[in-house]
Every structure is written in structure tokens, then in C-alpha cells.
Amino acid sequence: MRRPKPEKRGFDILLDRTLNKSLGFDRDERRKLGISGLLPYTHSGIREQVQRVMVNLRRRNENLEKYMLLSGLQETNEQLFFRTVIDNVEELMPIIYTPTVGDACKEFSNIFNHPKGFFITPEDKGEIAEMIDNWPEDEVKVVVVTDGQRILGLGDLGANGMGISIGKLALYTACAGINPDHCMPVAIDSGTDNEELLNDILYLGYPSKRIESEAYFELVEEFIMTMQEKHPGVLIQFEDFLTPNAFELLRRYRDRVLCFNDDIQGTAAVILSGVYSSCRITKKQFKDLTILFLGAGSASTGIGDLMVSAFVAEGLSEEAARKKLWFVDLGGLVVQSRTDLQEHNLPYAHDFERTDFLGAIKALKPDVLIGATGAPGTFSQAVIEAMSAVNERPVIFALSNPTSKAECTAEQAYTWSKGKAVFASGSPFPPFELNGQNFVPRQGNNAYIFPGLGLGLIIAQAKNVPDELFLTAAYRLADLVEEHDLEVGGLYPPIAEIRDLSMEIAIAVVEKSYELGIAQAERPADLRKAIEDYMYNPMY
User: Fold this and answer.
1) Both 155 and 292 in a single domain?
2) Does one domain contain both 134 and 239?
3) Digit-coded pLDDT (tens) for 32-46
4) Are residues 305 and 431 in the same domain?
5) Distance in angstroms (rounded) separating the CA atoms of residues 167 and 224
6) Looking at residue 401, what is its pLDDT?
7) Domain tally for the chain?
8) Are 252 and 291 in a shared domain?
């Protein structure tokens, strides 16, 4: 529920994004609300208004310009913004989130023109509880929080990382119907080590080097615990934290509060689902796969950790499961003889000869290659050809985003493999034709998982988010891939179906939550109807 507001009339209504319908006010409403004369004559329903928005949007050539137009719409007419995104989600998701959100974050301080989100700095320590009372909504159910230190593949963007929290929550609403009143984007602005930002007079963030160690974790602790007091049971989604901090925060809070890290766990569920789907094309059994990762940060290790759980569910021991997974980083293949490994890499340091990336492909003969490097072009022609030499249908996941950071493009994967590759990516690529064969590569977008997962957690009022829920979401998503998707190389359903997909994932998550005994809500007699009734559907 929104806090009670003084009854508004006249221009104040048109300035309130939650009340404004623009040309959607009919004659009677205009007279009653004192806005006659403040709008042009024409009365347009929301569908007509969506058409007008899309016409104006398609006239823009630059994606950042489109992002700013949509951002302005969200600030002035919230219902129209979400109706537009819902009705055109396949076209607009790359605008409101990856890859365009990366450019928006880089320019955040330059394009900022309206307060959006909640900022915390080191100077706010001890005052966060009082500050949270300033948030205009009394019922927060989902928080997306970042500290801006590792935004996509772009690095430390400081407070500019707020664009990520805003974008993710827009997807929670558009893709899964979580009421925007229940969403709170947060940036823990603990400073930045980006010298370019610190020297930029237009930078809007805390103008200091990042605080570290206990000072940093104390600030996060105060925020997390205050949110639990103010909004019990709120879901906290950690987003784009530096790898060591990402793992440490997950370790500290995963059993204490309802939370998950989308880079570690959400990405893992999406990619696990895609690997399951790929087995239907390659005709291989999941339990028999060998998987090689290029990159050994939070995303790759998170995928590996969930895959261990999946292999164990297939009957393997944990030790045998880990031996199915291999990692390559800047130092080469992750093996026991190396002395430069971080703690999260150690479980995957196998007893094997040290070698480089290409050497690892030739020696291990992996069935699946997954890239999460942030380094463009690392899946070179030699790499794709090496994978093709050891696989009839090599499975390639080029996950880094934005698009400029992708390990390879869809066209490169298909061309260099002579059409043999089974390809998915972290950023969208257009369909491609090779030798008369049509390929429709699908983006391994986290939006396939986290909105539906979050919706299910809210409905179930879950206590925490165990790995079993991510496995459940991954299995359900894979089940929803149709044969006609696989025929064109698509490992995921069309993103245009995301609302329906989120509903199915939410149902599966709620049912699993009751099975695990972590659901605190009374079980609805008709679960599907309960979820449908909750889902926000903007219309006027």
C-alpha cells in the first residue's frame, strides 16, 4: 500500500507518476479532477498511448536516447511505462536492461534528472533507519542493491551503478508482475576507485576512495538488518558486487535473511537450464558432460556450484561432480599446483597438468564451453574450431555483456563451426542464416529466472533461498523450451513469453518452498489464481 496522500487536484495529478494517465483521462475525470484545459482535446486509451510511445521510440536511432525516453516516461506515467514494456518486452528489454543499461550507467551522472532509488554512503552510518523512513512506500517486498564496484563487464562505476538496480526492478514488474510499489532500488555508495569518476566534476556519487574491510561490511550490515526491521521478510537481491565481496555477503546472509546474488545464483540457474536444453540437441546425457569455463569469477563459480548440485541430483558424488567442471583464468587452467587461486576457486583446482586455454580444450575435450570473462573476442576462431574438432555439436555460451564484451558473436560461432555450434549468449544477437539454415540464438538472460523466482518467494513468504529453488527454476525453464525452439538452435523460449514463463517458474518455486518447509504463507487453495491476483497488470 502507498502511504495515504493528500487528495490531489489539477496539475498536481499530472505531476504524480502514480496518478497521471495523461491523455487517458476522459471528459468527466478532467472536470472532477480540475484538469480540464490542462490536456489536449483527444482522449486516448492506454493501448493507443502505447502505440504513440512506440512510434516516437522507433524514430530514435541511438539506444541510449531510447533509454532516456523510457526513463522519462517511467518518471511521469508509471502505468503507461510498464504497459509499454509488457506489450513490447522483446524489443524493449535490451533498452531498459542489457546491453543499453551499461551505457546508461556510464552516463548516469550526466543524464540524472529525477530522483529514483535510495542511496547510502559511509556518512550515513548510524542513520540508515531514519533515512529508510523517507522512502515513500510502506510495503517493500523486493530490494535490488548494488555497490557499483563491478557493473556488468564495465568495472567500478560507483554510484552510477544505481542504473542496474533500477533496471532489474523494472524487469521484476514487467516480467513477473511484482507491483512497483513493492520495489526499492538501492545503491550502497561506498566510494569509488575509478579515478576518472573521482576527477569528474559532474560525478554525483560519494567523492572518495572506497571504504574497505569491516567499515564496508558494517555499512552493509546496518542496511540489511534495518530493512529486516522496517520490512520483515523483504527479499534482498545482491547485484554486481566484486567477486570476493559477492561471495562473502552471500555467505553472511543467505541463511539469515531472504536473499540471493543474481550474478552468482540467478546466472547459474539460467545457464544450467540452457545446458539441459542443449542436451536435447546434442543427444547427450547431462550427467556425462564435461564443462569448461573461461573466467573463474563469481558468475562462473556460481554456475559451477549449482551444476555440482545438479550432478549430485543425477546420482554423482560431490567429488565426481566437481571433476566434471574445469576453469581457466588469466593464469591458465585452474589446477592444484597453482598458488595464486582465490578461495572460491580451490574446490575446482584439480590434479592436472597446467596448460593454457586452447591446451585445456584439446586435453579435456569439453562438451560445453562457458565464457564469463568480460573480455571480448576470447572465443577466437581457433577456440571455436578446437571445440568443433572434439564435438559433433559444440555447445558455446558467450555470456559477457554488454554486447561489446561478448566472447564471440553468434555469427562467429556459427560461421567458424560451419553451423555445428549450439550457441547462447549474455547479450542479444539477431537471427543468422548460414548455408540455407536459419539460426535463432537466444540470450541466456537472467530475466528468465529472477523475476519468476522473486514472485514465487513473495507468494510463499519463504524464509530463505536454498539451492533447491534455483534447481527447480532451472528445470522448469528447460521444460518450457519447445521443439520448434530447438530446431533453430534456441536454448530458451522466446523472451516475448516472459510473463507466462515467470508464472510457471513462480508456481514451481512456491510448490518447492512448501515441500522444503520454508514457506511461511498459508497455502492458497488455488495457487495459480493467487499468483494471477497478485500480479500487477497496468491498465486504465
Assistant:
1) no
2) yes
3) 999 999 999 999 999
4) yes
5) 21
6) 81
7) 3
8) no
Examine residue 402 and say whether the peptide bond preceding it is cis (omega within 30 degrees of 0). Answer: yes
Q: Which residues contact 442 (CB under 8 A, 6 or more apart)?
A: 424, 485, 490, 491, 492, 493, 494, 495
Residue from 478, 267, 483, 286 nearest 370 by CA: 267
Q: Can you spell out the DSSP letters for 348-400?
A: G-BSS----HHHHHHHH--SEEEE--S-TT-S-HHHHHHHHHH-SS-EEEE--
Asked if residues 95 and 82 have their Cβ atoms less than 8 Å apart, the reply is: no
Give first-to-last CA distance, the chain, whole Å. 19
Domain match, 48 and 142 both: no
Report yes or no: 150 and 261 within 8 Å, Cβ to Cβ: no
Instruction: Give the global pTM.
Output: 0.94
Residues 379-405 pLDDT 10s: 999 999 999 999 999 999 999 987 888
Query: What confidence category does residue 297 fall into, taking pLDDT thresholds of 50, 70 and 90?
Result: confident
Co-location of 326 and 183 in the same domain: no
Cα 16 to Cα 5, 8, 19, 52, distances in angstroms: 11, 9, 5, 21
Q: What are phi and psi of 439, to 5 degrees?
A: -120, 135
Query: Do the strands 259-261 and 291-294 form a parallel or antiparallel pair, or are they unpaired?
Result: unpaired
| Residue 154 included in any domain | yes
- Cα–Cα distance between 460 and 477 in angstroms, integer? 19
Which residues touch 270 (CB under 8 Å, ≥6 apart)?
444, 445, 446, 448, 449, 474, 477, 492
DSSP state of 137: B
**Rounded-to-integer distance, Cα 467 and Cα 460, Å:** 16
Question: What domain range is 109 assigned to?
Answer: 95-257
Q: Select from 213, 240, 257 the last residue of a domain.
A: 257
Q: Which amino acid, one-letter code, is at 62? A: E
Please give the positions annotated as active site.
Answer: 97, 168
